[in-house]
Automatic annotation (TrEMBL):
UniProt organism field: Pandoraea eparura
Protein name, entry field: Putative inner membrane transporter YedA
Domain EamA positions: 119-197, 212-343
Transmembrane parts of this sequence: 35-52, 58-79, 124-147, 153-171, 183-201, 207-227, 239-259, 271-292, 326-343
InterPro entries xref list: AA-Vitamin_Transporters (IPR050638), EamA_dom (IPR000620), EmrE-like (IPR037185)
Gene behind the chain: yedA
Topology with respect to the bilayer: Multi-pass membrane protein
Length: 354
């Protein structure tokens, strides 16, 4: 006699429930990412307040970048992080009938798969190094050096606050259209930043040098954001962090050696600022920024920078008792409104069935 065995399968509803729950958590995380980024990124000026009296700008940044490498390198080695590789040459039939050989780059997330057997993708690594140098070394180095040499923090925030507008202006480089509503939001956000820092923008007695450093930082963060979106938006975060901060360290350390004394006063404030810079800013906030650039339009990501001065102003009010004027409070509302106009998703109504 033949035996009939009943094979039990998990109920379809249970599997669908797990999938729905996972999708829900992913949606919540995607929605929370921009706000976590703004909150952590805004602590950068607080770190500068503690770190700058104890170390010169490029020296502090070299320590920060070197510390990031010391943390991330063991993580990358222990987790078996694969380097990005180019897939083997694949024969394709061209429209004319002849066979062409094309090389396709394997995304780093899939570099451990069977088809990622080609050589290391040095082109992608070079792109990561360029964007890392612009976003980390030049942008941060310029802002910190400008403040160290006399530029008010408000002026630095205002000049760098032009970045979302500049990014939108060149957004077509990465194939991103900017709507009229988004342009209105960008202008509104910039006006809000101006109101927040209005009482901290003093230009009397400031030389050309600090202003030029602010402008250099503006150009660097704009170019770095667009460059990464265009050439290297997709990569393993562990590899990307190592390459980008390695490049920034390679640029910043010699610059500090030549331009500064590299003297450091090691105290609790300096150590705390450095540890926070490495773990929260360089690893936490930058990883979030990479994910946001990968998933969203460059203009939308850049518009989040409008929320940094208002958030920093609130932190300074809570931590240091700095004045929070009604004008600054109004600027926060205007900046938040501007960002909302830029990042709001408009959905087209579904067409009715005939």
């Amino acid at each position: 006699m033949s035996e009939h065995r009943t094979v039990s399968h998990p109920p379809a509803n249970a599997a669908n429930g797990h999938a729905t729950a996972g999708a829900g958590r992913a949606a919540i995380w995607r929605a929370a990412m921009p706000w976590w980024f703004v909150l952590i990124w805004s602590t950068g000026f607080i770190v500068a307040k503690y770190g700058m009296p104890n170390a010169e700008p490029l020296t502090f940044l070299a320590l920060r970048f070197g510390g990031t490498l010391l943390v991330m390198l063991p993580i990358a080695l222990l987790t078996g992080t694969p380097w990005p590789r180019r897939r083997a040459m694949v024969g394709q039939v061209a429209p004319g009938g002849r066979t062409e050989l094309t090389a396709r780059t394997a995304l780093t997330e899939r570099a451990g798969s069977a088809d990622a057997v080609g050589p290391i993708d040095w082109t992608l690594i070079a792109h990561l190094a360029v964007s890392g140098t612009l976003i980390q070394a030049v942008y941060l180095g310029g802002v910190w050096a400008a403040i160290k040499h006399g530029a008010p923090a408000g002026l630095a925030a205002l000049v760098v606050g032009i970045q979302p507008l500049l990014t939108a202006l060149f957004a077509r480089v990465v194939g991103e259209p900017v709507s009229r509503r988004q342009w209105l939001g960008l202008l509104c956000g910039f006006a809000g930043v101006g109101l927040v820092v209005a009482n901290k923008v003093g230009v009397r007695g400031i030389g050309v040098g600090p202003v030029a450093l602010c402008v250099l930082s503006l150009l660097a963060i704009t170019a770095g954001t667009l460059y990464q979106k265009r050439f290297c938006a997709h990569f393993d975060l562990r590899v990307g962090t190592l390459v980008q901060f390695g490049a920034a360290f390679a640029v910043t350390l010699p610059a500090a050696w030549v331009l500064e004394t590299m003297q450091v006063r090691w105290n609790a404030q300096m150590i705390g600022a450095l540890v926070w810079s490495v773990l929260a800013l360089s690893i936490g906030a930058i990883s979030l920024l990479f994910l946001l650039i990968r998933q969203g339009a460059a203009t939308k990501v850049s518009s989040l920078m409008y929320l940094t001065p208002p958030t920093t102003a609130v932190m300074a009010w809570l931590l240091f008792g700095e004045t929070l004027s009604p004008l600054s409070a109004a600027g926060m509302v205007v900046a938040a409104l501007g960002v909302a106009l830029v990042i709001e998703r408009r959905t087209m109504p579904a067409a009715s069935s005939p």
